[in-house]
Amino acid sequence: MIQDPSGPDGDGPAHASATPGAASTAAPDAEAPQPGDGSPSPASDVPEEEEEQPQDAWSARRDLYAHSPGIMVGASARFAGGLSGRDQHGVSGGHVVGDVIMGSKTEIYQLGVAGDTHTSGLVPQDSLDRTAALFVPGGDGAAFAALVERLRAERVLVLSGRHFSGRRTAALMLLNRLGATPVRSLDRDITPASLAGLLDGARGHVLCDLALRRDQPLRDTHLLALRERLVEQDAHLVITVDTAAALEDVAVAQWQPPRSRAVLEAHLAALLEGSGDLGADAGALLEHSAVKEFLDRGHQLREVAAFARLLARVALGRAAGQDLDRFSLAALESQVEEWFGDPSASLSDKAFLVSLAAFNEAPYALTAELSDVLYALLQKTEDPSKPPRVPVFGNAASGRLDRARAERYEENEVTEWGPVAQRKARYRDDRAALVLLREVWTGHPSARPALVAWLDRLADDGRPLVRTRAASTAAVLAAADLPSAMALVISRWATSRRYRHRLVAVNALTLAHFLGAPNIQRILGSWCTGGDRRERWTAIRTYALIGPAHPTEALHALRSAARTHFAAGDGRGDDTTGLAEEVDELASSVALLLLSPAGGQVLAEMGHWLNDDPALRDLALRAFLSACAHPEDDDPTASAAPLLEWYALASAARAAQARGLAELWTTALRDRHHTDDALTVLRTWTWSADRVPRAEAALATLLPDLVGTDTDRRRLAHLLRTMPAEDGGTTPPPVAGRLLAVVDPG
In the chain, what are the domains? Predict the structure, then answer.
């Protein structure tokens, strides 16, 4: 079950405490709490950590897997298999995520991706002719022909389409096909009422991306005035608008762009015209795997045209085939740079892009809500003297998602109340979120104070999804620039007094490691044996998550932590809260590793620990009993006792692992510090066996192997004779009698 926002992972309004160095001055203005603005209270209000309870390692692992972005979950078989306890394979979208974060590492192509031109003046006829030679109307051309006839009859046509869908080219080609040339391009920054006065006698007019405001929409009365003037001049006008334009009683014509492959083929054929026998080579190039991936990405038509130019260069021997593989990512990077470099884009729009990158595939309402928080923090960075102003209404979801090349869709979201249907938002290209976060962190350092303050807010949020996305965002930043991300973000969380913040650091380090960030294991190793108790706690938790992919390194680090920080003797050291907490965390981490795909190696190591110093012996027994008490992956459909099933399978195969599991059981039952816990687990397994015949058969195989002495027999027999019913009744379950006959036949 998902933790309640005010639940056991620590509640309260406290914020991460400041730390010395660069991190403490990262966002002095943005982080200052303001009454009533939802800011966390000062760190002095934080209760001592002993009053909090951290979310247990099992449910924390489940939340990380449930709420991480899909591209991260699918990017690494090690990540998915390690977190879910199952073997999973595959690379999201056919690319390596680390390469996306680190960049395409390629030359800057002449992408031709500058924004649409809005200057006023005559469009050169040779430009129209070149465009006509490459133009693809889409479909069988019937819809475009119908638009031509509609323009002929109505004189003025309002063409609506998505950004960079080719609507400007379509407008020019409508006029050209009609013979309404020369064409004059009109300035977009005018009011609808003044449009008629700009018609100067040219046969064709085009007004691209008319700038409309809600208080000055384009009305049908404006079109009537335009039509009257156009009839007088025997002229035609096409106006292009986006899908969210402010219109009143205007019958728009919807522009449906052609298929990308059709545009690519048309451009390539034109570029190779007159090149002899290269047509066959061009056909083979169109079947290249990089071409298929490019087309599947849903690139804009302007990028398709640029890709066609590269294909032509490859066909002519002027570029290498490897350049095709790198083009798609280079085009995406160019788009992201354009978004942040566009002076006409508002700060609110740019904040939304960042929020969508952090909350890709999350509910749209959540993305928009936290986008406003980032927007306010960015305003403080730009002008600390002015209070931030966030418009309550105004930005339509469809329009802002279209500009961001994103989409909405419906999908269930995991909550503490079970799956709930949500309207989510995501970039159409799943790499966009990673590229955008890398760009804003490394390419726009002035945004860092606001971004750091925003991430701190997210890390302190009561919703598991929000905290997980704070971690995944920090992980991308660490993969792109580890020193800065550690100093400004992750290290502060790792040393926070609050468990909630440390858990976010755990998740950030885990995801950063699987995204390819360097030196994460080196950091964890030093923390595990270092003198900072909070760093040790963070490192121990992190090893539970990355350990399935690196069991040797994880076991070495956890073994070193146990030896370094706990005295010999009974294996538990001083009876202080801090040390007891670390013992529990070490045991939970080893238990998670035991139930992971690396369980065989972990089991063998734990067997060695039984004959090592008392600290490791105690750790092995605690971890073993912890693993026995938990179902795999906290999955209700999974086995209630995966270690019991493991033993049954190993015993049937006469594998050494059966002996290893039995040895751990026998040692735990005979150890005075662990006998009670071991009997509790056996009692739970017996109740399960009363419901599941397979579990009864496994127990019937296990229990005789736990009897090495008469004391062992009497202990187990007493457990089965005195076992209460699962519902608390005094009558033992029937299965107890059957198992008793196995343990004590007499």
Answer: 1-94+346-518 (no CATH), 137-254 (3.40.50)
